[in-house]
Write a structure and sequence with these properties.
globular; Four Helix Bundle (Hemerythrin (Met), subunit A); mainly alpha
Length: 131
């Protein structure tokens, strides 16, 4: 059974981290604190991964490595145009070694901001069905 309370907490966490990432994306690469922005980007990607994984597991769908968001898009859980970019960012930010260069972090912050604009409203729309 889907845990909608956990989903609501994940969406709240996504909104908080996307706000920090969006603020950094609006600045120039030289003006950001790469370490803090990198942590916000990583938090966003891992939380998004957890939320989408929860949907796929609830529907008992197969999850392919490296194609989590594409699998979710195929099942019409998230928008298709966000899936490929999200999978690439998850591979880059989901591991133990993440980018530390300010320019690379800034470029990914811009991508995550665009992704958040498509992903967060969709996840926020899911609510517990009335019995």
């Amino acid at each position: 059974m889907m845990d909608f309370e956990k989903l609501a907490k994940d969406v709240e966490k996504l909104e908080k981290s996307s706000g920090a990432v969006g603020a950094a994306a609006a600045k120039k690469p030289e003006q950001i604190d790469a370490k803090d922005v990198a942590e916000a980007v990583r938090t966003f990607m891992l939380t998004a991964r957890d939320a989408v994984t929860m949907f796929l597991k609830d529907r008992k769908e197969q999850i392919r490595a490296g194609h989590l968001f594409q699998d979710a898009a195929a099942k019409q859980i998230i928008p298709t145009e966000a899936a490929v970019r999200a999978d690439g960012l998850l591979i880059r930010w989901g591991g133990h070694v993440t980018p530390t260069d300010a320019r690379a972090v800034h470029e990914d912050a811009v991508k995550v901001t665009a992704l958040a604009g498509k992903l967060v409203p969709v996840l926020k729309a899911y609510q517990k069905p009335n019995p």
